[in-house]
UniProtKB/TrEMBL annotation, chain A:
Residues 166-283 form the ABC3 transporter permease C-terminal domain. The keyword Signal does not apply. Belongs to the ABC-4 integral membrane protein family. FtsX subfamily. It comes from Deinococcus rhizophilus. It is a multi-pass membrane protein. The chain crosses the membrane at residues 20-41, 161-182, 215-236, 256-278. This is Cell division protein FtsX.
Length: 287, 250
């Protein structure tokens, strides 16, 4: 094994430019991936917060059968729970929140209709649920945070998709970079490899130093990416938590450590997969 | 009942029948075409080489000597016919078995293929390293191989510090260090002056005397004439002469 490690290190040192190029690309990719994953984690946490708050309110017509409508609404897809609030309860709530409402009610009577309050399973469901409820006979009007919910969902989904797209492209680049680095290393050792083949070395023996090279590159990139990502994110999270406490920034180690571990593992696996593929192709070309 | 069997003479009491010499290499109606042009490098070749033989393979450039070597090493596959090495058809050597086959064949080429950054000792030990021989066995085995080629005093020298003849002898030491039963040498004296060439040939003779089958491809007439052995003459891929008494016949 010492021989294989020594050969791997010699190959990395011998092709320093290719090694540094791969290391840089891979580290940047892992940084991007880590960044996108952390962003997604926070986006999901924010969306969960929104989901728990988003409510579709259906105002019923005077003669509508509230109980029947409640059953119909509960049967709609995407509905987590629904509640029928009689007009008196609505007035009481409003009076509690806005005391002047009581005086207005003395003048014109209770202006609030019976109301169905509907909670959806996912925030993206709020629009279709609102549209479905609005179509029900007996429903006069429907309200939900259409403006901000839709926009928030759209923005966050777009950010997440763009991030994943970028990471996919970067991963393709990283893989090609590793393929190239391993290929250059094998080409530099072509004389040695041809001697090894003549002497009866197995394919596994010839490939091992280069597979180690790929894994070492992956490990180094992962370590570098984590060394930047972990303290950088924690510092940013502290600031966001201090200046915008409304955002539920993820800071607990139980969530962050597995995510960072997955990023590191992905880096190592990319190195392994890239080098396995490159060595297999190179040896097949020789035969 | 005592009777005739395979036309053997009948003996009245048990008598050890002379064993048929083992065939190390068998070419049966072998043709090999160049992939690019389709021209034949070897044309309907039939050859048998037995254990312990020293065989010259002679012919001009392009006669098919290297193609013969490449087939034995499974660096190429015949377009037609069958090649057997150590009693098994080449087609049976696949994957890891190809590597194991090559471990049983020592090879020496005109370009000695020594690794420039390694000493003579390390070049020879490289064979043992890639074939998984434990490190504790290396000093004795490498020492023996270097002694066989007369280079025990130059173990630390790098290839650039050695003469062409010495380099070729290191290559022979590397080829024999694992005690292969077969040694293929493709123009090993091609780059050498006559004195160095004879020196290399003497080493190969010595290796053959230890029991190793040696196949030496060469077009050096003087060598073939000086050290006489069975000589196979190839011309345009065809075997035109198989002379047990030896001698250059082109």
């Amino acid at each position: 094994m010492t021989y294989h490690f020594r050969q791997a290190l010699l190959a990395m040192r011998g092709n320093l430019t290719a090694t540094l190029g791969t290391l840089t690309t891979m580290t940047l990719t892992l940084l991007m991936l880590g960044g996108v994953l952390l962003l997604t984690l926070n986006v999901n946490r924010t969306l969960e917060g929104l989901e728990s708050q988003v409510e579709v309110a259906a105002f019923l017509e005077g003669e509508a059968d509230g109980a029947a409508l409640l059953r119909q609404v509960e049967a709609l897809p995407g509905v987590r729970e629904a509640q029928l609030v009689p007009s008196e309860a609505v007035l009481a709530e409003m009076t509690r929140d806005y005391p002047s409402t009581a005086e207005a009610a003395k003048l014109v009577g209770n202006p609030f209709p019976d109301t169905l309050r509907v909670r959806v399973g996912r925030v993206e469901d709020s629009r279709p649920v609102a549209q479905a409820v609005e179509r029900l006979p007996g429903v006069e009007d429907v309200e939900y945070g259409a403006g901000y919910v839709d926009q928030a969902v759209r923005t966050l989904t777009t950010v997440r998709a763009a991030g994943y797209g970028l990471v996919a492209l970067l991963f393709a680049g990283t893989l090609l970079s590793i393929l190239n680095a391993v290929r250059v290393a094998m080409y530099a050792r072509r004389r040695e490899i041809s001697v090894m083949r003549l002497l009866g070395a197995t394919r596994g023996f010839i490939r091992t130093p280069h597979v180690i090279e790929g894994v070492l590159l992956g490990t180094l990139s992962s370590a570098l990416a984590l060394a930047v990502l972990a303290p950088g994110y924690l510092a940013l999270a502290e600031r966001v938590a201090a200046f915008a406490p409304v955002f539920p920034v993820v800071r607990d180690q139980g969530t962050l450590l597995p995510l960072l571990g997955a990023v590191a593992m992905l880096g190592i696996l990319t190195g392994l997969a890239g080098s396995l593929f490159a060595t297999q192709r190179y040896l097949r070309e020789l035969e | 009942m005592l009777g005739r069997e395979h036309d053997q003479p009948v003996f009245l009491f048990p008598w050890p029948r002379p064993r048929r010499p083992r065939r190390v290499i068998v070419f049966r109606n072998v043709s090999l075409a160049y992939p690019a042009s389709g021209a034949l490098a070897l044309d309907d070749l039939n050859v048998r080489i037995h254990k312990g033989e020293f065989v010259y393979l002679v012919g001009h450039s392009g006669a098919g000597k290297s193609s013969f070597m490449n087939l034995v090493l499974k660096r190429a596959l015949p377009s037609r016919g069958e090649v057997q090495v150590a009693g098994e058809p080449l087609s049976r050597y696949r994957g890891r078995r190809t590597a194991l086959l090559r471990r049983r064949i020592g090879t020496v080429f005109q370009d000695n293929l020594l690794l420039e950054h390694l000493s003579a000792y390390d070049n020879v030990a490289f064979t043992l390293q890639v074939t998984g021989v434990p490190g504790r066995e290396w000093p004795a085995r490498v020492g023996t191989a270097l002694r066989t080629v007369g280079l025990e005093g130059r173990a630390d020298a790098r290839p650039v510090q050695l003469s062409q003849g010495e380099q070729q002898r290191v290559a022979i030491a590397r080829a024999i260090v694992a005690d292969p039963p077969l040694l293929l040498a493709d123009e090993p004296t091609g780059n050498l002056d006559p004195d160095h060439a004879r020196e290399v040939l003497r080493v190969l003779q010595h290796v053959n005397l230890r029991g190793t089958t040696v196949v030496l491809a060469t077009h050096a007439r003087d060598l073939v004439e000086t050290f006489r052995h069975r000589t196979l003459t190839l011309r345009q891929g065809r075997l035109v002469r198989d002379d047990a008494a030896g001698g250059y016949a082109l």
